[in-house]
Amino acid sequence: MTRVAVNGAAGRMGETVIETAADRDDVSVVVGFDVDGVDEVQGVPVVDAGEAADALAEYDADVAVDFTVPEATLSLAEACREAGVGMVVGTTGFDEDGFAALDDTAEDVPLLKATNFARGVHALLRAISEALPAVPDYDLELMETHHNGKIDAPSGTAKTMLETVQEERDVEPVYGREGHAPRDEDEIGVFARRAGDIRGEHELIAAGNDEVLSLSHHAEDRSVFAAGALDAAVWIENQEPGRYDFGNVIDQ
Ligand code: NAD
């Protein structure tokens, strides 16, 4: 049984992780952290994130799962280092310094970061790598849609899709295309929409003159991300310090 601490316990994803874990017998959420003044989420005690280092030890956590904001992830990283606890990071929107700080943390504890914990998105990324060589001259456009509370745009998943495309094709992103001249063959349009409570939709189209290839993924419930993050928590408990990604969990 992997003992999990959840950072951002009162948030959309944090709460879903706690709810999803309650139905599993391989993980148990022992404590949550947040800054909201919430004491408890679905029976799990929630303590102030500033006390995370002590609480990780007190509640004997094996792994911390984080769905917050980059600043909160980095302060949890310090606590995990101090307590010798592995991390599963779902938070998106890090800048270069943030990525460097995560790399630094991974020298001391195992750290797995994924912009998307849905297994279908992982399959989508593999499908993109596989498909693009067959359509070398087609125009590429990337779209994502999320709920109106999402902070970063484009989404972390869209950025990962873009990186995957750029491993196959030398294209430069054009964001939003406002006032832009007719498309250049070396560009990829990237579009973000925010509306309602849409969990997450991503689509890459590759269009020639006579056909359109569409590769897409729709998340129907946040529990899909929570399940993947918990699978990652179980997996990382027994790993050595280092940087890992969700592919390591899927390929195990
Ligand atoms: P949210 O705003 O609903 O929840 C964030 C929570 O973090 C809030 O409860 C907030 O109070 C808390 N928080 C803020 N500062 C904190 C701090 N210093 N210490 C501890 N807690 C703090 O957001 P959300 O929709 O749950 O998304 C959170 C993150 O997860 C975003 O970056 C989002 O893009 C990402 N996300 C990733 C995946 C994935 O599969 N990797 C899936 C969904 C969302």
From TrEMBL:
Coiled coil regions, renumbered to chain: none
Catalytic activity: (S)-2,3,4,5-tetrahydrodipicolinate + NADP(+) + H2O = (2S,4S)-4-hydroxy-2,3,4,5-tetrahydrodipicolinate + NADPH + H(+); (S)-2,3,4,5-tetrahydrodipicolinate + NAD(+) + H2O = (2S,4S)-4-hydroxy-2,3,4,5-tetrahydrodipicolinate + NADH + H(+)
Residues binding (S)-2,3,4,5-tetrahydrodipicolinate, per UniProt: 147, 156-157
Keyword NAD attributed: yes
Origin superkingdom: Archaea
Limits of the Dihydrodipicolinate reductase N-terminal domain: 3-117
Family annotation (Pfam families): DapB_C, DapB_N
Pathway per the UniProt entry: Amino-acid biosynthesis; L-lysine biosynthesis via DAP pathway; (S)-tetrahydrodipicolinate from L-aspartate: step 4/4
Binding site for NAD(+): 8-13, 34, 90-92, 114-117
Subcellular location: Cytoplasm
Any single GO CC term annotated in Swiss-Prot or TrEMBL for this entry: cytoplasm
Broad EC category: oxidoreductase
Translocase listed as a keyword: no
Keywords recorded for this protein, A-Z: Amino-acid biosynthesis, Cytoplasm, Diaminopimelate biosynthesis, Lysine biosynthesis, NAD, NADP, Oxidoreductase
Domain Dihydrodipicolinate reductase C-terminal: from-to ranges: 120-249
Family: Belongs to the DapB family.
Quaternary structure, from the entry: Homotetramer.
Name this polypeptide is given: 4-hydroxy-tetrahydrodipicolinate reductase
Species name: Halorientalis pallida
Gene: dapB
